[in-house]
Amino acid sequence: MPGKARPPLIDMALSRQAPHVDYPFDLPCVRHLGVLAFHPAVTYLVGENGSGKSTLIEALAQCCGLNVEGGNRNTVFNTHQTASLLWKHLELRTAVAGIRSGFFFRAETLYNLFTKAEEEKRDPHGWHVYGWSDRHQASHGEGHIRLFKEKVQGDVLIFDEPEAALSPHRQLAFLALIRQWIQQGSQVIIATHSPIILSYPDAWIYGLDSGPLQRIAYEECACVQVMEAFMQQRQRMVSAVLADPDEPT
Length: 249
Hints:
Low-confidence stretches: none
Number of helices: 7
Shape: globular
């Protein structure tokens, strides 16, 4: 059965020859990467803005042969030269079969991906041959969901902040999609701030807020703690933030 096959990604480590200065090698999560082991089904990277989770997830996608601005191996384009060289200094250990297919979702550059797909319609061999439809005609959130349902497939599925434009209800629906992908034999890696998307059972969660990557429990995630505190003490937290915007509590 597809779900019983050995997952393609085993672990990832920083090469000993990697630089130790300048971005992104000066990020604590990169400098002290060690060995990042991947769960056979779902692995999460969670951390505050600037912690480096998107940098790591982008480099992982490049190591898997995926376009840095999103898509599968058929979507080859580059709008801006913004990708770091981190991927060239990562050592990715895979199963014998390797990575045959995958998909990279990156909320930050999704508009670029949709725009490029529309341009390719003029080419008889363009992406529409592989099932791309007009995503710009849908609402932002609807476009995300349609993409997830229609195009996301492969051995390795990598997501950078998939919660963008998704309502809480849609984020719950995303959990069901994760289960579907796993049942089809995919391995899923996600960088997220969302307590809902972060809640898939038995997944491995790596926290980046303390420097070196550490496996942490769901309840230890800062985004979960802040959301729980807000729901329990909404008025006190809002009052504190409005009284001193520079020091939210």
